[in-house]
Design goal:
- The protein is 46% helix and 10% strand.
- It has 384 residues and is mainly α.
- The chain has three domains: 6-92, no CATH class; 100-194, Tyrosine recombinase, N-terminal domain (DNA polymerase, domain 1), CATH 1.10.150.130; 206-373, hpI Integrase, Chain A (Orthogonal Bundle).
- The strands form four sheets. It has a three-stranded antiparallel sheet with strand order 1-2-3, covered by helices on one side.
- Strand 4 and strand 5 (62-64) form a beta hairpin.
- The longest helix is centred in the middle third of the chain and has 20 residues, at 158-177.
- The radius of gyration is 30 Å and the shape is elongated.
- Residues 1-20 have low confidence and may be disordered.
């Protein structure tokens, strides 16, 4: 710590070299608070009066100015930041609302519109990754260079890095929108070893799906078959209610889903969209006996809707049928999408059927389509 940093200014009145530790400004007065027995800096800036008692030290921690020398250091620090145009009184206040750690916690507490799974993921990104690395940084100091450094410091897979950075960008963009910072930095581009490569699409052919169904107990078959025939998400099938099955119109509306806490909530995107009831689905639904429950698929062993335990039941049947396990969503929704793409369904129609918000999400299934390639090769072989 400088023994008397204010002397740097008085001894070098002509310098403006901030990198060498000098300050051109000399704003504020060091005063003593007899009642609190502490020193502070009093200043007027832009028509506002400030009394600042705390000196920031390494790691962003704030300590009270117990000596005049500490108050002089605080004054020097304030003037340096005024010269650099980064002075904010909040930096020197105990709660430090613009510290990333404090700001992110406050931001997360206000995200009531998010689904529970998303909110839990954001909490992990903030507490396990962002706070340990840059939690002491003020959000108005975060720039593109700092974001690039953060990407390299995160010791996780590229996809996780992308998710963490996306979470941080949501925080910064909201801070800009609420005028807590002047402008959010641009989102960094993931390059080199940090570049995110889409995973392989893993899916099943109908014959493989039938083998799995054969290994399921009869009580579990209807809900699994329904997923495979409609491409809905497993949690949506479990949450489907009879009121949303419109036999007269030939439509099903996926309105609800179970979240990660098994709470019934609105579907992802919060915009219920109908899909047509094909003949096989109609036959399946009409074969199900209704109960006093509003849900279509009821666990015969509990008398309630199927829980997430259905995943374990499916995994066991899959292992017995194929010799390996595949996720229930991949065996149902992903396999449905890939089968439809392979059989020539137009991308906008498939996107609508899957209720995607953008065809960019659906495009990946067409990248794995090989039927058109096979047809082209067959034509060449026939010429020969």
């Amino acid at each position: 710590m400088l023994s008397n940093p204010s002397q740097l200014y008085y001894n070098n009145p002509q310098t403006n070299n901030l990198e060498d530790g000098y300050s051109m400004s000399n704003i504020g007065h060091v005063r003593y608070d007899k009642k609190g027995k502490t020193w502070y800096v009093e200043l007027w800036l832009n028509g506002k009066h400030h009394r600042l008692y705390r000196l920031p030290i390494a790691g962003g921690e704030l300590v009270s100015c117990k000596t005049e020398n500490m108050a002089q250091t605080l004054k020097f620090t304030i003037n340096r930041q005024i010269d650099q145009e980064i002075f904010y009184p909040e930096r020197f206040k105990k709660k430090q609302p613009l510290h990333l750690k404090a700001y992110a916690e406050t931001w997360l507490s206000k995200q009531d519109h998010l689904m529970n799974a998303t909110k839990i993921a954001y909490k992990q990104y903030i507490n396990k990754h962002l706070v340990p690395v840059i939690g002491h940084v003020f959000i108005n100091d975060i720039n593109e260079g700092m974001l690039d450094d953060l990407i390299n410091k995160l010791n996780v897979a590229p996809k996780s890095k992308q998710n963490i950075i996306s979470c941080l960008m949501k925080i910064l963009n909201d801070a800009e929108r609420h005028h807590d910072i002047d402008k959010a930095p641009k989102k960094p581009i993931m390059r080199g070893t940090n570049k995110v490569i889409d995973p392989e699409v893993i899916w099943l052919e109908p014959k493989e799906q039938e083998l799995i169904i054969a290994k399921l107990k009869p009580e579990y078959r209807n809900v699994i078959i329904f997923m495979m025939m409609t491409g809905c998400r497993p949690s949506e099938a479990r949450a489907l209610q009879w009121d949303d099955v419109k036999f007269s119109r030939g439509e099903i509306i996926f309105r609800n889903t179970f979240d990660c806490k098994e709470k019934l909530v609105m579907v992802k995107g919060k915009r219920p969209m109908p899909i047509p009831i094909i003949d096989d689905v109609r036959i399946l639904l009409e074969s199900i006996e209704k109960t006093l429950q509003p849900f279509v698929f009821i666990n015969a062993f509990t008398g309630r809707p199927f829980s997430a335990h259905l995943t374990d039941v499916f995994g066991t049947a899959c292992k017995r049928a194929l010799g390996y396990k595949i996720g229930m969503a991949k065996a149902g929704r992903t396999s449905f999408a890939q089968q439809m793409a392979n059989n020539g369904m137009e991308i906008s129609m498939l996107s609508r059927f899957l209720r995607h918000t953008d065809t960019k999400i659906t495009k990946r299934y067409y990248e794995y389509k090989t039927s058109s390639m096979k047809s082209a090769v067959d034509k060449v072989r026939k010429i020969r």
